[in-house]
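From: lab user (bench 3)
To: helpdesk
Subject: output format question, protein + iron/sulfur cluster

Hello, I'm new to running complex predictions and I'm not sure whether the block I got back is the full result or only part of it. Here's what I submitted:
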Amino acid sequence: MERTTVIAEAQLQAQKEICRQIKEYWQEKGIVPCAFVDTYGCQQNEADSERIRGMLQDCGYTMTDTEEGADCIVLNTCAIREHAEQRVFGNVGALVHTKRRHEGQKIFLCGCMMGQEHAAKKIKSSYTHVDGVFNPHHLWRFPELLQQVLLTGKRVFAVENEAGNIAEGIPVVRQNKLKAWVSIMYGCNNFCSYCIVPYVRGRERSRRPEEIIKEVRELIAQGYKDITLLGQNVNSYGKDLGLGIDFADLLDTLAQLEGDFWLRFMTSHPKDATKKLFDVMAKHPKIAKQFHLPFQSGNDRVLKEMNRRYTSGQYLELVNYGRSVMPGLILTSDVIVGFPGETDEEFEDTIRLIETVRYDALFTFIYSPRKGTPAAEMPDPATKQDKNRRFDKLVDTQNRISEQIHRSYIGTTVTVLADGREGDVLTSRTEGGRLVRFKGSDDLIGSFVKVRITDCTTWSLVGELAE
Ligand code: 5AD
Ligand code: SF4
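Helpdesk reply: Thanks, we reran it on our side. This is the complete output you should expect:
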């Protein structure tokens, strides 16, 4: 593998020039082309899709929300679990017919799934209606790939793997007017034994702090109110830059920017989360008091096999510290059941951990073997039924806790960000992301307001303006 590279300004300018040429290509035809970008998987993919839309817009495309009749379709795929891949293959298969109904339609596949050689090969050999494939390392070259397909009609495959790169200044079309994602770093060095991400997204590399500060400042000026800093493991931010700036320092700087906004971040690896980070969070009102801290398993043997490099004791110590400096801290997490070799007793440690921490919300997954990862080679004697039983217990346990926490909001006053209207009520979100509905006028949309919670349904809270 090669070293991390920063894509030179001249190369990015060349892509911009290609965008201009594609725009002209369509203008000469007298056509306003439209594009559909479909995103699978995580927020990193959402953020990448915003850049794909930005490049397409520069090429003269307008955006549509259906594949039917689109001149260009981009499927930004996910490889984290088999289910995600099956959905992609199913949907790509169906595009044969969509393409038949719209002459000249161009279909591209990108994202993590295309970072796996076997998946890209399968697309090449069995899905010949797909015009182009590129993995996450080649995203910045999308205009060039699109132009090749448009001009030659030939299929293109940009799937060479590399350690990774950073490309600044790619245009972005954001989907939401209030919430924005800001990637602060790319890739992952952790190689958790079950996870495909380090193989498809390359090594950790951090954007320079001044670029991030500039982007966040612009977002605040544009009226964004809820800004999420993104990275597979934000806690190792800056290690590759050698500037003496870590993630807590970056957060500290950003939280001091002028304006009215919430700052949040994901994802944190417990082995790298520091007390300093919790202290910075506690210090700044603009940093949302919410922490997504995946624990994956509550059993130390399983954690070791997962190559997570912390114990459940160390994890709990971290949580306790966070709560000691921020009593209302909202915790969310990811957990996997049915990791190869996990026994019923070991699974019970996971349940115990959940009951000890009492998360606000949990993202629960059944282990899915990923080709090329160490865990996929481990003996896995538990049956599908065993795993499903554990999964059901996990979900039941968390649902009970979530419901209790949900009810405990009644009678309290919370700050929410009003984000839209549904009939005669406004919709809003709390700092921790809970949906709150309350009566209010449209001019409140986009501002932070205090709401007294009066009632709840299964999935949302009901309140009234407190001021
Ligand atoms: N099987 C199941 N869940 C997985 N995750 C990552 N890889 C796998 C896998 N092979 C989960 C982890 C991670 C989240 C994004 O997805 O919990 O934190
Ligand atoms: Fe995957 Fe682990 Fe990296 Fe998260 S930290 S992306 S789970 S390897």
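A quick orientation on your result: The two ends are 58 Å apart (CA to CA). Let us know if anything else is unclear.
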